[in-house]
Amino acid sequence: MNACTANAESTARNPISPLLSVVGLRKSYATPQGPLPVLAGVDLSLAAGGTLALMGESGSGKSTLLHLIGALDDADGGAIFIDGVNICRLSEAARAGLRRETVGFVFQQFNLIASLTVAENLAFQARLAGRFDPLWQERLTDRLGLAALESRYPEELSGGQQQRVAVGRALAVRPKLLLADEPTGNLDEAAGDAVLALTLDLVAETGCAFLMVTHSARLAARLERRVVLEAGALASA
Ligand SMILES: Nc1ncnc2c1ncn2[C@@H]1O[C@H](COP(=O)(O)OP(=O)(O)OP(=O)(O)O)[C@@H](O)[C@H]1O
Question: Which whole number is the average pLDDT over 205-214?
C-alpha cells in the first residue's frame, strides 16, 4: 500500500464522479537538499469528452501531475479517480492495465518504435491491449493523413508525421482519457497546429477526455478549459 492509498478517501468507487477527479493530490521529490514539494493539494476534474489545457511555468509540476494521473508514478497523498476508480488504491498489475487500456499517452518526444513501420506502430498499443480493430485502424490512418506512409519507418518521417502516428497509436486503443505532455513542443507552428487540430477532431469522435500540458496560450485557447499550476496548486486561467 503506497502513501497515496493510505491517505486517499475510503470510497474506492464513486458512481457520480466525472471521468477524471483529482482530490488533494500531494507529491514531493527526495533530493540531496531534502524533500522538494511540487504538488501541495491539487484538485481537478474533467468530464468525459472534455478537453483541458494544463499550463504553468517551467518546473511548476505539470509533467509530475500528468505522470501521477497516468499511473506512471505514485503520489504522497490525495486521490485520483478515473471513471470512478481511485487509481491510487489499485495493485501494480491493475495500474499497468489502466495504462494499457484506459489512458493514452502522447509525449513531446514521439517515442515511436524505430524498428516498426507506421502501420505497425499505429497498431502496437491496440494489439498489446487486445483491442486491435482493423476498421478503426484504417479510419485513423486516413484521418491522420498517414495512408501513403504506412510502410515507412519513423526515421523516414517528419516530426509532424511522427507525432500523428503517436496520436493514432494512443487512440487506436480507444482510451477514456488521452494525456499529452507538450505534444507540439518539437514541431513548428504549422505542424503543431495541424497535429492539435487532428487530435481534437479524433478526441471528439471517440468521446475520450483530453488533458494537454502546454506552454502555448494560443494552443491552450483551442481547448474548452484552461488551468494554471502555480505554487503547487491549480487555478483557473
Ligand atoms: N525525479 C525527480 N527527482 C527530483 N526532482 C524532480 C524529479 N522530477 C521532477 N523534479 C523537479 O520537480 C519540479 C517539477 O518538475 P516537472 O517536470 O513536473 O515540471 P514542469 O512544470 O513539467 O516543467 P517543464 O515545463 O519545464 O517541463 C522541478 O523543480 C523538477 O526539477
Answer: 96
Would you say the CB of residue 86 lies under 6 angstroms from ligand 1?
no
Dist. CA 138 → ligand 1 center (Å): 38
Tens digits of residue pLDDT in 63-114: 999 999 999 999 999 999 999 999 999 999 999 999 999 999 999 999 999 9
Best CA proximity match to 196, nearest among 20, 19, 51: 51
CATH superfamily of 47-72+92-236: P-loop containing nucleotide triphosphate hydrolases (3.40.50.300)
**Phi–psi pair at 178, nearest 5 degrees:** -110, 125
**Domain range annotation of the chain:** 47-72+92-236
Quote the ligand 1 centre to 64 CA distance (angstroms): 6
CA distance 42 to 54: 12
Would the CB of 214 count as within 6 Å of ligand 1? no
**Contact of 41 with 232, CB cutoff 8 Å:** yes
Asked if residue 50 has its Cβ within 6 Å of ligand 1, the reply is no
Ligand 1 midpoint to CA 61 (Å): 6
- Residue 58 Cβ < 6 Å to ligand 1: yes
Dig out the grid coordinates for 230 from the structure. Answer: 502555480
Which pLDDT tens digit goes with each residue over 103-129? Answer: 999 999 999 999 999 999 999 999 999
